[in-house]
Amino acid sequence: MRKQILIVGAGFSGMWSALSAARLAEGNADIDITVIAPQPELRVRPRFYESAVRSLVAPLQPLFDVTGVNFLRGTVSQIDAAARRVSWRDESGTVQQQRYDRLILASGSHVNRSQVAGVAEHAFDLDQLESAEVLEQHLNGLAQRPDSPTRNTVVVCGGGFTGIEMATELPARLREILGTQAKTRVVVIERGPQPAARFSEELRNVIIEASTELGVEWKVNAEVEQVTAEGVTLKDGQTIAAQTVIWTVGVQANDLTAQIDAPRDRQGRLHVNAQLQVIGHEEIYATGDVAYAATDDSGNHALMTCQHAIQLGKFAGNNAAASLLDIAPLPYRQENYVTCLDLGAWGAVYSEGWDQQVKLTRAEAKKLKVSIVSELIYPPAADKATAFRIADPLAPFV
């Protein structure tokens, strides 16, 4: 019987898993590689804070066609690890089943909107293309509303990377939408004791400098108690009136991880070994945002970023195919860690290492940021030789 490598998800980790597996299995007619996802396109989620969000996608079907990857359009609803099969719902709503010999779970993550009252009903997010589109339409529609401080105020809940990039993008974007005469206000809610509290002092100081110049306010030592149509209420009783509240906190691994009887971290990510196999399930690989994976021997673990998802995908695909071909697997390692944070009209900041040493700022860093998000992280051309060369886990990530 033909062997089946089944990949759930077509994000950064799913796409690269498929290409890496196809690369190693090339010429072996007994192995099929299949991706199940809602659509054959890569949605460039790291850019969803930008405008024209609908354009931030890249087609995958031509790439899958030239590399021999099968694509099934649908959504996986159940994993039966004992029977080695998944149930999935196709475009018509029909539930179907697909067996596998190796499963690569690359189903991504989502923002948890259920833990704080009113978030689901009244807050916007950048979690998925559809919700980012809703936010963009809302922002563009503000100009049709009566001018008021409430209309002109945006509250961003969360001072992580997504929150910072959204907040620093907003001053210029609001001026474009509302006009330069409108007195706009952008406020970031940060539960830590200082702005960008989770980052290194050097990186934090750059973020504070950019925020000050852009006029972005930070509310520190603050947590949201409730979101309403009128704004937010903080746990200390303060209120901020705003017609726009953006939620960027509480990211969790896709719920499918809970269907696998294996250890998970507090974000729901599955613990994996060095080969990215789920603990206790050698036939299942986890990658991207659903994998709790050590990047090195110093205690660091992959973050929920495309930087880690791309490399995790390459190793997961390679190792799943290797296990069917009796080839030695490659232990996942990603010792180099960098950050490149967009800071709106101020520029950007680039740092290296887990201690986040700042190397570039302002225009220099912005040029690098644009190159990364508009070129480096996009899929390769629909050319098999090029795709397979880049899909090699040991190839330089350039």
Description of the structure:
A hairpin with a 4-residue loop joins strand 6 and strand 7. The strands form 7 sheets. An 8-stranded mixed sheet has the order 7-6-5-2-1-8-21-20. A 5-stranded parallel sheet has the order 10-17-11-12-13. Strands 14-15-16 form a 3-stranded antiparallel sheet. It is an alpha/beta fold and 398 residues long. Helix 1 packs parallel to helix 7 and helix 1 packs across helix 9. Helix content is 28%, strand content 28%.
Write the layout of secondary structure elements.
Layout: E1 3-8, H1 12-25, E2 31-37, E3 41-43, E4 57-59, H2 61-67, E5 70-80, E6 85-90, E7 95-99, E8 102-105, E9 109-111, H3 119-122, E10 124-125, H4 129-141, E11 153-157, H5 161-178, E12 185-189, H6 201-214, E13 216-219, E14 224-228, E15 231-234, E16 239-241, E17 244-247, E18 251-253, E19 270-271, E20 277-278, E21 281-286, E22 291-292, H7 306-325, E23 338-342, E24 348-352, E25 357-361, H8 362-376, H9 384-391
Helix pairs in contact: 1-7, 1-9
GO molecular function: NADH dehydrogenase activity
Protein name: FAD-dependent oxidoreductase
Keywords: FAD, Flavoprotein, NAD, Oxidoreductase, Signal
User: What class would the helix/strand composition place it in?
Assistant: alpha/beta
CATH architecture of the largest domain: 3-Layer(bba) Sandwich
The stretches of 5 or more residues where confidence is low (pLDDT under 50) are none
Report the helical percentage: 25-40%
In CATH, the homologous superfamily of the largest domain goes by the name: FAD/NAD(P)-binding domain
CATH topology type of the largest domain: FAD/NAD(P)-binding domain
Total beta-strand segments: 25
This entry's quaternary arrangement is: single chain
Distance between the termini: 39 Å
Regarding CATH, which class of the largest domain?
Alpha Beta
Rg, Cα atoms, Å: 22 Å
Query: How does the major sheet shape up?
Result: 8 strands, mixed
Question: Order of strands across the biggest sheet?
Answer: 7-6-5-2-1-8-21-20
Strand content: 25-35%
Tally of individual domains: 2
Query: Number of DSSP helices?
Result: 9
Shape: globular
The average pLDDT is: 97
